[in-house]
Amino acid sequence: MAVRTAVIPAAGMGTRFLPATRATPKELLPIYDTPALQFVIDEAAQAGCTRVVIVTSRAKPSIESYASAASTDKVAVSVVYQDSPLGLGHAVSCARQVVGDEPFVVMLPDEIMGDASLTKQLVALHEKSGKSSIGLKRVAATEVSSYGNVKVAVYKSDTEDAVEILQVVEKPKPADAVSDIVIIGRYVFSPNIFDKLEQIKPSANGELQLTDALEMLANERALLGVVSEITRYDTGTPMGLLRAVIEIALERKDVGQQLNSWLKEKFNK
Length: 269
Ligand code: G1P
Known about the structure:
Layout: E1 5-10, E2 30-31, E3 34-35, H1 36-46, E4 51-56, H2 61-68, E5 76-81, H3 88-93, H4 96-99, E6 104-107, E7 111-113, H5 117-129, E8 132-138, E9 148-154, E10 162-170, E11 181-189, H6 193-199, H7 210-219, E12 223-227, E13 232-234, H8 238-251, H9 256-267
Parallel strand pairs: 1-4, 1-6, 4-5, 8-12
Antiparallel strand pairs: 2-3, 6-11, 7-13, 8-11, 9-10, 10-12
Helix pairs in contact: 6-7, 8-9
Bound molecules: 1-O-phosphono-alpha-D-glucopyranose (G1P).
């Protein structure tokens, strides 16, 4: 079945970005002149999605205002609410009714991708295999503990770099890492993920972890991945956001040259 819906979890309080997030949700902080959220909406549309569902909190009314002006002739943007901060797994389950009984994409707006190629590959892999498929990347050993970490096996497919996922561990201690491959924030799910999310138990911090549902799929050999070398900006921290602003502005035709000259002038002094 074609994948037409993208779910964007955006209910977090953005405490790392205080005091900015007292008034502006982190998903609306600008990358030069465009909110991070818009990059993710555009990526969904480029990957062929015609519906975007943003999971947000009633404490962030500007997300709804933004969404109400963000629909285009290609993509309809709407919001649903996550009334309590019970984790990423819970956020995804809040979209169940709107998504319906069909496959869908989940895109974490803390990560901006250089283009829509990874999401397109995941959609293609899902459409061919019928299995949930997630975005992966190799990272330095020191970074593994910040992410979901996976053990993989080769998977025969036409999709480049496709793997079968054998094990998933959320943010392992360095000694417990199962590989140097981590989950980056793009997922294509079969609708049975919602049943898995109903079965998982809250983790030690009381949150429902999406990774626990992924682990259930991996145990059934029902989870694939694509190990990607895509350009990726992690905008989940103020320094990550600043780097994304500079790098993305340097790539822009309208301001890139000007920024480049200013940086050279500044550092040649
Ligand atoms: C979440 C997931 C983690 C994944 C990461 C990607 O973690 O739980 O498995 O690797 O997103 O950004 P968070 O960054 O929300 O702590």
